[in-house]
Amino acid sequence: MQKDNHLEELYDRVQKTASSRFFAHDRLKKHHAASLWTIAFFSIGLIVIPLVQTFGLDVRFSDNYISFIQVLLAIVILVISIMLNMSNFAVRADRIHKCGMVLNALARKIHGRIETVCSGEEFEALVHEYNNILQAYENHSRVDYLFTKRHMTNYYSVRWYQSIYYDFIYWIQFSTYAILITLVVAWIYMLIKIN
């Protein structure tokens, strides 16, 4: 959308970037929660195995196979814990949320100047402030921008099939967690299911 006023263009750009940052915050929070739930389910799997053996419940698998799965669950927990620590989803989410808040403050500042005459120096100062904010924080991902496109209907026209595509791209990144949780739940079910 082409604007007549450069200040309006800057305002629009800041608004879109802030919106994308807030979507990134939500996405990173979901990654953090999904990682924790995956670790929790695998931990439950590690706890169930000795309980089944201690109480002498009938199991479908040999002791060697059960021991192998127990070690495998422990390795997966270790790997996910390391990935969670390295990805630092919670801290990144908080930082990117702070970026969104700073951008919103800048947007309000710019919006207040739209109706007034803004000198070239003032405009350049606002652009410089915007660029400094962008450089100080992590950038959002493409999927966050796609969600911004879908939700900012005053700027973008998104067709129904594009919306489905955006959802697919968004949720596919969480599929690993769902697959891992499903596998551990299925294995526990098969372990203790009575023939």
Any descriptors?
195 residues; mainly alpha; 81% helix; elongated; transmembrane helix; membrane; transmembrane; SMODS and SLOG-associating 2TM effector domain-containing protein
Work out the count of structural domains: 1
Mean pLDDT: 90
Helix-strand sequence: HHHHHHH
Q: What structural category do the secondary elements indicate?
A: mainly alpha
Q: Helical stretch count?
A: 7
Radius of gyration: 24 Å
Largest sheet: none
N/C terminus separation: 65 Å
- The helix content is over 70%
User: Proportion of β residues?
Assistant: under 5%
Number of strands: 0
Unreliable sequence segments: none
SSE order and pairing:
Blueprint: H1 6-54, H2 63-87, H3 89-114, H4 120-136, H5 142-151, H6 160-172, H7 175-192
Helix pairs in contact: 1-2, 1-3, 1-5, 1-7, 3-4, 5-6
Sum this structure up briefly.
With 195 residues, this protein is mainly alpha-helical. 81% of the residues lie in helices and 0% in strands.
Describe the structure.
This is SMODS and SLOG-associating 2TM effector domain-containing protein. By secondary structure, the chain is an all-alpha fold. It has one domain. It has helices spanning 6-54, 63-87, 89-114, 120-136, 142-151, 160-172, 175-192. The longest helix has 49 residues, at 6-54. The termini are far apart.
